[in-house]
Each structure stands twice: as structure tokens, then as C-alpha cells.
Amino acid sequence: MITLRFVGKNGILGRKFVLAVSTLSVVGILHAETPEPVTYLTFDEGTGTYAADSVGNHPAALLGGAGWTTGIVGPHALNLPGAPGGYADIASPVLNTTQSFTVAAWVKLNNANGYQTFVSEDTNVEAAFFLQLRGDSHQFSFTVPYDFFVNPQSGFTPIVGQWYHLAGVYDAVAHSATLYLNGLLADQIFFVNPAAATGHSSVGRGQFGGNPVDFINGAIDDVRFYQAALTGSEILEIARVGNPSLPGPLPVKPATLHIDAAHPGANINPAFHGLMIEEINHALDGGLYGELIQNRVFQNDSNEPINWSVVQDNGGVGSIALDKTQPIAGTALTTGLRIDIAQGPRVGAANDGYWGIPVRPNTIYNASFYAKGSGVTGPLTVGIESVDGSVVYAQAQVSAITADWAQYSVTLTTSSVATTEDARFVITVGSPGTLWLNQVSLFPPTYHNRPNGNRVDLMQKMADLNPGFLRLPGGNYLEGNTIDQRFEWKNTIGPIQQRPGHESPWGYRSDDGLGLLEYLEWCEDLNMQPLLAVYAGYSLNGTHVNPGAELQPYVQDALDEIQYLIGSTSTNWGAKRAADGHPAPFPLTYVEIGNEDFFDTSGSYDGRFAQFYDAIKAAYPNLQVIATAAVKSRTPDILDEHFYETPRAFEKDVHHYDSYSRTGPKIFVGEYAAQEGRPSPDLNAALGDAAWLIGLERNADLVILESYAPMFTNINPGASQWPTNLIGYDAVKSYGSPSYYAKQMFNQHRGNLVLPTTLNVAGGSEFYESATRDNQTGTIYLKAVNAAGTAQKVQILIDGVGHVSGGTAIVLASSSPQDTNTFDEPRKVVPVTAKANQVNRSFEYTFVPYSITVLEIKTK
């Protein structure tokens, strides 16, 4: 059975006939069955104040100066003045936007300024979708608002006065939003869930904050609404109604790649690949930092001892509450936990940790706490047990406590128990009275057995990336929501009982147990250098410190911080570092002034940067100073740029830095990540990230540092604030994403020289490549991304080498670009290493679909 469709006026599908045939010669009018539009506005009236719906009952009223102009499909099109109120209005929603749908239109702009929306449907607050020109990127986009989104975009700024066909497709099965431009796939994102449209449908404006916005200045023609996710071939067919000459996708054909090893290019910075960290997604507290007790100093809530619960067993009666009347003298510990025991034999407090206390077999835990009692002298029982208290995994006792604050420590050792996070930490007492606790701590074994140290598996995952630097203490975490909530490094050094902690900008409090010195020791443990970001007088709520006398204390604070890192023990802050247990200075090359100061609309960063720059260069002329926004007052050594894009946008932007000026600052890509996959990237995101890295590596004369962000996420409900993150974990397990393994492949096969490459592709291609060489070994590393769903054959020619002695292929690939790693399948998408056969100075290699490949070519 086949379906024969007759195409009527302007491409509208006529009546369908089902024919039973044995053979049929396919001709132009025969197509796969395509849904008919539920609303179709041809705008061919050319007069009047209404545009008819050719297939239904959704006419559009022309409002506010909307009129008629020459069309591209038929004689007329909608003409819009760009003035508020000028658009075509349909007085009801046309589509169920929670189900699959497609919107398509021909558009022509009179200018490319600001946001201009071609088609949208209202909700109570914000349009359910916008087929639009975006004002931030100046690109066409199919914008679908949801909890976090990056928009599928066209990749270029449209030419004024030129017709373009746009189609936005939402697929409710795949949860994807796709933009087609002139019948071809432009971009796609996944994990999209639109809101339900409940108000008007509009041609020529959007909706934001409950109000009409984004009125267009230009023309719109042939607007179609489908209650289905059209395919690429169906959309190309619709687009060809307006322009029959539009080409289809080019077939993938064999390519030739020339590697010129005789004329090497730029040196690659040994620290090129690095790490970026900040306190987000419980990356530190509840993640990397080894502390297992959540709310250990009882400051996470001003009214309740959250994460703590009362223990009343075997007839015991008692209660717990915060107590701010019993501070510990000489410390920052001002709020404690009061436990009132009315009746024994077992009353106390339990902490549920960061979504559980991790229990592992044959493991030693170190517990400590401050305690004092009234009527309670002991013993105290300290243990790790199941959430219901029925299973005790480890236990110890403190035989006696006093009426004055004192610190106590015990060791807890598990036996051959099964690994679980379904556990809690408890401190109980048997006799009536009152017990006070403060700074309750529990540490498992840490990386390199450092006291107050870091979680072993997460440190090892970072070590396996072979990083060159760590950007610390991070982005928004440095700034804070307010100036008072900034990262005040002086409050994060010294004994932990002297650290008051502070609010993180991501909705929870940091104890600052992982403070400045711990960051630096982390760098030491992984043999990477610190890239120090200093607070520069701007916080996230928009407040800033004016340059001049007002800013000077912050400049001095940055100079003190640098001295803490690199000053000799004869300096004030170098001596403090030594007193904190690290007499030797740390290496330091890079100092970054602020974070994302392009968000500061006051224009103060130019002056703020100059004040920091002059002071740092005067005291430390060899340090490289990094700006976080464009400045004119001084020429920074390096400019930090951040990118969060769709995978396809990264692929299309692989040549982003090719045409950058080589006479200005060097570039630090301090944050980037392809936004697809939750809570961590899928393979498609890894393809985008790897293509982007290829572009950075090829421009290593300009781009000298790069780091992915965010690095960590605790995957428990409520723990994470950012959707796409490099490494996922819970209390006991962790896994690397496909993007993690892509970055590992690049980091471990860096080379120290860029080799020029020339790629010739006869047909369509989604193939990206770079080549580097290790001068010590002569090994050439060819890094390649094949983002297409078909294999790419490449004839590889290498000039400038005397002999090729073999090769190895490291390949990251899977059958679907949406494949990813999870706790259930942590190694579903991981690199596979095999011998590369027939590698020589001239050889053919087939790069499999959806793959990232490093060819390690041994040369002499």
C-alpha cells in the first residue's frame, strides 16, 4: 500500500488516495505522507484587515500598522512596521505545545536589530515558543523556554532584505527542539519540555512578562502550524514551495587530509588543558571535599537544625534545637545543637549527611566534635548506622565529657559490610540532662591521606585528565550574590574552627572547610598550577565598588592573597602560609581580575581592572593578568571568554578563533560546555565539545588556556543547579560523562606543536580535525570528530616525516548520539584503544559515525 498525494495551491496537500499497486514509477507528485497543517496563513489577500486560515478557523487580525507587501509564496505577504502593536493576531492557541508540533514561515527583515519574533503562542507569562531573531546572538532561533535552555540557532546573522525559510520542530517523544533554515537542519537541542500555550497565537511578535514584545520590522509569508514533528525531508519540501532551487543535504564523500609536519606551527602551552571549579551542584561540600556531615556547624538554617534529627530509642525521650547562647570562645562557632534528654536509655542526634553517609567495607573513618554537658557526663556513643538504626556499621565511645567546651575525636572502623549510602551518623547518650554539640565532623580516607582532605574517587578522575591548571575559587562563587557574600579568602584559612563560612550564590551555605590553602594543596596533589581569580569589586546582584579609594582595600586584599601564595616566609602573608603548615611557596603564573564582569552594566570594570592591573604589575611584574571583559584602559595579558552553546553550534563555530587578531591579548576559554544531557553530557554534547576543542587547539598561538565548566554535579534531587556537568556522583559512586572522556583523550594526547592541516571534502561533511606533534617522541596526534551518522573515509597524507612505524586509534563512539553514561551504565560510552592498521605516510582511514578519534602515529 502507498499513499498518493496531490499537491494543491501553494503546496497545500490535497485529498489523499490509498492505492494498492505492485509497482509504480515515482514521480514528482508522489511523497511520503505528511500531516496537513492545522492552520495555514498564505497572506495572499493583499487588502483588508484579516488574513484567512486556508485550512481551518484561525484567521489572523492585522493590528497596529500591519499591512501587505509582495510575497515569496503567492502574490502577497504580511508587512510589519516594527512598531509596538504591529502584528497579526490569532485570538486563540492553535497548537497543543506540550505535544509534537512544527511552525514554518518565510521571513524577510528590514533590519537585524534586537529581538524580533516571527511566530509565537502565548502562555500567562512567556510565549511557549519563539520562532525569532535573537537580540543577543543576532541569529535566527527556535527558542523554547523551559527550566534551563540554550537555543537552537542558525549560526549566522541574516542579511537584511533577503528571504529565509524557517521551521521550528518540537518532538515530544525525543523532547527535542530543532531549527531548520531553508529546508536544512541548522541546530537541535534535547531535554526540552515546553509549557502549554493558553493564549493568543501571533505572527510578528512574542510575549515576555505577560506582555507583547519583539515586534518585527519586515515581511512574513506562508506561515504554517502543524500538530506533528515534521521530518527534514518534509520541511525541505515545504521550503521549496517558495524557492524550488533550494538544495538538499550534500552526500558525504571521501575526503583528503594533508598533515604538514615539515612546517610546524605554534607551540602549545604545557598548561593548555585545565580545570575550573566553583561551589555549584554541591561540587565541594557534598562532593569533592571529604567532610560527610552536612550542616556541621549548624549555620545552614537560622531556625532549624536541618539535616539533623532527634534519636529516641528503647523508650528514650528527648529533643533537639539550635542554641545561639553557647558560643565557643575564641572560635567562629557561634551556634550549636542542644540535645535535651528527659529519659534514657538512648537519646541523641543523627545527621543524614549529603544524601546519605557512604559506608564502605573495611574502612576507617575519623570523627570529631565539640561537646559539653549539663547533667550529662558520658559516655557518648558515636556511630554510623542504617537510617532506621537497626544495623550498626561502626561504633566507638567517648567515655566522659565535661561542663566546658572541648573537642573529642574517635575512630570508626567498618567490617566486611556491603557498600551503601543508606546510612546516618549518630551521637547518643544514656543519662538525662543536656548535651551541646558543635562542628561535628566525619571524614573517610582522603586522597593522599591529607587531613581535612578530598574524596579519593573524584580526585582520581581529575588526575586522569592530566590537567595543567585549576581556575580557583571559581566563577560566581568568587563574586557572591552580594559583596558581603563574596569569597573572602582570609576567612577560609587557618584552623577550621576559625572559619565562619558563607552563603554560596547557588542556594546553599559553604562551611569553607575547603579554603584557599586546601585549593592550593589540591593543585599540588594533581601536579597542576593554580590560576588565581581575585575578587574585583562586582557581585551578582549588580552592586559594584567604584574605582579609586573605595576599591583600594579590595586591591590590597588581592595583593595579600598573592603574597600568601608566593611570598617568602619573611613576608606577612608568606609567614601566615607557613604557620598554616606550608612554608614553601606555590607556583603562580596567572591572576584573573574578577569573573564575567561583562555583566556589570555600570561600565566600571575598565577602571577597576586598571587599578588591579597596575598594582599587581608593580609588585609582581612577571604575573600574567587576565581580564574577564573587554577593557580599553590597559591591555590585559589574557582575556577570559565563556561559551555555553548547543553541540551543533560548537561544531559550526570550530573556526571561531581563526580570524582573531594576533596583536591583542591572548585568549583563555575559561568556561565552555555543549548543553545537552542531564545531569551530564551525552555523546552528542561530547562531539560538540571535541569539535570546539579542535578549534582551540588549532589556534594555540592565540588560545593558551581552556577549561570546561561545570566540572562536578551531585545527582541527588535538589543537589544540582546546572543541567550539564562533566562528572556525576552521589555519596558512594561517580562516573565520567562522554565529554569527560573526550577531554581526557585530548589532554592525554596533547603534543607540544600544532601541525598545519588541509582538509578537502568533495561533499557534505560534519568532520573536524587538528594535528599536533610531540617533539620528544616524534609522535603525531591526529584528533578528529565525525559528528555525522555515516562513516567518513579520509585519505591521510603526511609530509615532513622520514618513517612511520605504526599507529594506535583511540575511539569514543556509540550507536546513538544521545547515548550517555549513568550509574547503571557508567562505561556505556568510553574510549576504545586498538591498533590502527596500515598507518603510513599515506593511508586511508574510516572514521565511524558519531565518533571522536585520536590517531597516535609513530614517526621518525
Write the SSE topology:
Elements: E1 2-7, E2 13-19, E3 39-41, E4 50-51, E5 60-63, E6 67-70, E7 76-81, E8 87-90, E9 101-109, E10 116-121, E11 129-133, E12 140-143, E13 164-171, E14 176-181, E15 184-189, E16 201-203, E17 206-208, E18 211-213, E19 217-226, H1 232-242, E20 255-260, E21 273-276, H2 284-288, E22 308-313, E23 317-323, E24 336-343, E25 346-351, E26 364-374, E27 380-386, E28 392-398, E29 406-413, E30 423-429, E31 433-443, H3 456-463, E32 469-472, H4 476-479, E33 502-503, E34 509-510, H5 516-525, E35 529-534, H6 552-566, H7 572-579, E36 590-593, H8 605-619, E37 624-627, E38 638-645, H9 647-652, E39 666-674, H10 683-698, E40 703-708, E41 712-714, E42 727-729, E43 734-736, H11 738-748, E44 753-755, E45 757-761, E46 767-773, E47 780-786, E48 792-799, E49 804-813, E50 832-835, E51 842-847, E52 851-859
Parallel strand pairs: 20-48, 21-32, 21-40, 32-35, 35-36, 36-37, 37-38, 38-39, 39-40, 41-42
Antiparallel strand pairs: 1-2, 3-19, 4-5, 5-8, 6-7, 7-19, 8-16, 9-13, 9-19, 10-11, 10-16, 11-12, 13-14, 14-15, 17-18, 20-45, 22-25, 23-24, 24-31, 25-30, 26-29, 26-31, 27-28, 27-30, 33-34, 42-43, 44-46, 46-47, 47-52, 48-51, 49-50, 49-52
Helix pairs in contact: 6-7, 6-8, 10-11
